[in-house]
Write a structure and sequence with these properties.
By secondary structure, the chain is an alpha+beta fold. The chain is built from 13 helices and seven strands. Strand 2 and strand 3 form a beta hairpin. Helix 1 runs antiparallel to helix 2, helix 6 crosses helix 7 and helix 10 runs parallel beside helix 11. The N terminus is likely disordered.
């Protein structure tokens, strides 16, 4: 039973009180000649016990080195279990340390073949397969190595990959953002409107579609009044022009303009093309279409006075022929979206010594160059 002072001080306070009381009793007995008096060893033990109590109040969980654990585990075998309360750890921890000490005693170094003498070509091949094919597991890599005449085991593959910081297939990593976006861009068109002010200050609306994988642009229609019925009909006309090529398209990106009605979406969904709406007020989500609008304005429309809808159609048709068949694109490694479709001979090797000819497009506004026949 604990008296109130013990309850207030707690376990460590009880140790301090007992130590002070013991020292006072021994000092009194020594003065009366009824017992041993205090000596330096007793005082040193009292000092050490009090310092341990102070440290125990400050450090909730002390850190032990392997040597500390070995010493305490050995000393625990020499001290009765009822006196294990002097340790800063629990009895279960002392028993676990002792078991680990026994395990280390009976653990021997492996005597198998030293893996440091592996052929560097085998190691390089295994690491290359793991890094290039992130979804392949150990057995798949073993099978692929056998296909090229290299025999390894799954255990050896695991050891090689761990040595190079590569984990199992699910945790090895995934595709990069560039790989992910390129795979998603396959079969991904984007559509939008842009406006052109003609001489009479009449505003014309141009509807176009950009095929993201190859940057091919389609002129869908031009009108002064883009109603929902007109837009839906232009969608049907585009799908008829694409004919069998429409199966390559999977998703259509568009903004939330009211001109894109449910009938417009239904025309594409009937061909197996899902319509994806961009978030409100987020033109960057339709970046490919927005970028092409900037290109057509900077290279063509900003340098042309448009008189009417018919002239605008001719201008844009001629520019689209140049843009799709001849104009190099940085995203396509400086290749046109449809090389060779215009009939021009594009020489990339630089071995042809024939003179370079210039072809004027739309009255010399745009120039195209080719080798003379």
């Amino acid at each position: 039973m604990l008296w109130p002072g013990q309850m207030r001080f707690g376990r460590l306070g009880v140790v301090v009180v007992h130590t002070i009381a013991l020292m006072i009793v021994r000092q009194v007995l020594g003065v009366l000649g009824c017992g041993p008096s205090l000596n330096a060893d007793a005082v040193e033990i009292a000092v050490l016990r009090h310092q341990v109590a102070v440290l125990h109040r400050q450090v909730v969980r002390p850190r032990y080195t392997p040597a500390d654990r070995m010493v305490l585990a050995a000393l625990a075998k020499l001290l009765p279990r009822e006196r294990w309360a002097v340790f800063l750890v629990t009895p279960a921890t002392l028993l676990r340390w002792h078991r680990e000490l026994i395990v280390r005693r009976w653990t021997y170094r492996p005597t198998g073949r030293d893996r440091r003498d592996l052929d560097e070509k085998i190691v390089a091949l295994v690491v290359r397969l793991a890094r290039e094919d992130l979804r392949w597991g150990y057995l798949r890599i073993v099978g692929e190595c056998r296909n090229v005449g290299v025999r390894v085991s799954a255990t050896l593959v695991r050891w090689i990959l761990r040595r190079h910081g590569l984990g199992p297939a699910p945790r090895r990593g995934g595709p990069t953002w560039t790989q992910f976006l390129r795979s998603q861009a396959s079969g991904l068109p984007a559509t939008d409107f842009f406006t052109v002010e003609i001489i009479g200050l009449t505003r014309l609306y141009v509807l176009f579609v950009v095929e993201v994988p190859r940057r091919t642009v389609h002129l869908v229609g031009i009108t002064t009044h883009p109603t929902g019925i007109w837009v839906a009909q232009q969608a049907r006309n585009l799908l008829m022009d694409l004919d069998e090529q429409a199966h390559r398209l999977r998703y259509l990106i568009r903004d939330r303009d009211a001109k894109f009605t449910a009938t417009f979406d239904a025309a594409f969904m009937a061909s197996g093309i899902d319509v994806v709406k961009i978030p409100p007020r987020a033109p960057r989500a339709n970046a490919y279409a927005e970028r092409w609008v900037r290109t057509v304005r900077a290279e063509c429309l900003d340098w042309t006075l448009v008189w009417n809808e018919r002239q605008l159609h001719r201008v844009l048709t001629e520019y689209l022929r140049h843009c799709n068949n001849v104009r190099p694109h940085r995203s396509l490694d400086l290749q046109p979206p449809r090389p060779g479709a215009s009939g021009l001979t594009l020489v990339r090797s630089g071995t042809d010594e024939s003179p370079v000819q210039r072809v004027d497009v739309w009255g010399g506004l745009i120039h195209e160059y080719r080798r003379a026949a």
